[in-house]
Amino acid sequence: MPEQNQPKAPVFNPKIKETIAAFKEENSPKNLNDILNELVRSPLLAPAIFDLQGQPAPTPEADGRVQLPKDTKISLIMVTSPEGKAYYLGFSDWDALHEWQGKQQKPAQQVITLRFDDYANMLAKNENAAGLVLNPGDNSLRLERPLIESVKKQKDEVARKIAEAVAHREAQRIHPGDKITLVEPSVLPDAMVDPICEVLANAPGVGSAYLSVMIVNGEARNYLLILDGPRDEKLFAAVAHAARPYLLSREKKMDLRIDTSISPLGQQAMRGSEPFYRKGIGRVIEEDDDE
Prior knowledge:
Layout: H1 15-25, H2 29-39, E1 44-51, E2 73-76, E3 78-80, E4 86-90, H3 94-101, E5 110-114, H4 116-125, E6 129-134, E7 141-144, H5 145-172, E8 180-183, H6 190-200, E9 208-216, E10 220-227, H7 233-249, E11 256-260, H8 264-270, E12 277-278, E13 282-283
Parallel strand pairs: 4-6, 10-11
Antiparallel strand pairs: 1-2, 1-5, 3-4, 6-7, 8-9, 9-10, 9-12, 12-13
């Protein structure tokens, strides 16, 4: 067979074997966590049996992939523990799979690629499956159902939060045609402003800072913080972190948008406004006219 027509194997993660070996040497939560971190992002090989329902076997494509007929039934090979529990199989690479196949009387000829979520979903649907065995053999690792369910739950929660954050950022994005109204707050929220001033005191590039309430299309209300200085994403993150406790404490949720004085929005916010922070002075306290 010409070299260009040889099936191409998926790119597997060698760190899976490395983390399993480290866990074998020292059974610790950290080493187990290292395995799981690699596992959730890596493809695994799974031996299987294909039932083509009497249809002719498909021909592999140039990259080695096979398009199975629609009605094909796929049954994964499972192993049974000494305790009588059934486990799915997952191999980190072809060497691990071939080593296992060489010890079988009837090695499975079909192999599919699965990921962590696939195994977690199969466990959720198959109450008779107890978990997953990685690289069965001398260097195998058995992962029980409760652990896989816990990792899947954490993984889904992280994905949910990321999706919410992306959706929230999109909702807060200013689009062409949006009506922006900036209003100076009647009273500066000390619980937010003071921690921000502490951060800005260690940012020599910021000359002053302004705070407004930004109203978009007459509805969405957020704080707008303008820093008179160069754009610095690390500083923005530090300021946002300092403001977070106050923002979370509010009954009516308002977020904080941060921009610089060189932006059109920054120029608009600074026009006719007084800063609440100045470099070398810190928090600017405006005295009442009667005092």
